[in-house]
Amino acid sequence: MIMFDRKLRNTFQSLLPVHIFICYCFVISGLMVNFAQLLTWIFIWPFSKQLYRKINYFLGTLLWSRKFRKIKFLIKIKFFW
Fold first, then answer.
1. Is 0.85 surpassed by the pTM of this model?
2. Is residue 9 in some structural domain?
3. What's the domain count of the chain?
4. Is the pLDDT of residue 21 over 60?
5. 4 located within any domain
6. Domain residue limits at 43
């Protein structure tokens, strides 16, 4: 586990542009995954429901792992620092 100086951590956490950038990346990546799911529904689902389910399972895993990674990161910051 990497230990940071408390002053550096507080400075980093208080920077509004950093929070805006992280939120922006979080929202945009979610929209990209949802758009990919829409495209698979439009172009693959009418022809192969099994292939659609496999691809959509992978895309859903990407979406949820991203959310849980962020939650795990926030919990680590809040409780271990």
1. no
2. no
3. 1
4. yes
5. no
6. 16-80
